[in-house]
Write a structure and sequence with these properties.
This protein is of the alpha+beta class. The chain has a single domain, classed as Glutaredoxin, CATH 3.40.30. It contains three helices and six strands. It has a four-stranded mixed beta sheet with strand order 2-1-3-4, covered by helices on one side. Strands 5-6 form a two-stranded antiparallel sheet. Helix 1 crosses helix 3. It is globular and about 35 Å long.
């Protein structure tokens, strides 16, 4: 089975990336992926943020698609992201269910029981 490319992009100015990485690795394990295959990249400048389309930390992408797509007019930059969990709470990391759903969409065979 082909593995999806899973990336975590972060800016060191936001403290939430270790938790996001732990949640992502857990979601990968739960969906049959390799938790150690996550590509972790630090974004260090506004220029790099613009080139990457990085709208804040953490950004998690599966095969190039943000697991929580930002608004189309969201500007790139070195900022902290705020996510909305499925129960409505604000969170500095994506909802784990959003991570699992994105991984299952990338490789549907992983979601088989």
């Amino acid at each position: 089975m082909d593995e999806a490319r899973v990336e975590l992009l972060f800016w060191a100015g936001c403290p939430s990336h270790p938790r996001a990485l732990a949640d992502l690795r857990s979601a990968l394990a739960e969906t049959g992926g390799d938790p150690d295959a996550v590509v972790v990249r630090e974004i260090t400048s506004e220029e790099q943020a613009a080139a990457e389309g990085f709208v804040g930390s953490p950004t998690i992408r599966v095969d190039g698609a943000d697991v929580v797509p930002p608004a189309p007019d969201e500007p790139p930059g070195l900022i902290c992201r705020l996510f909305r969990r499925r129960d409505g709470r604000a969170s500095p990391v994506p909802d784990p269910d959003d991570l699992r759903d994105a991984l299952r969409r990338a490789v549907p065979a992983r979601s088989a029981p």
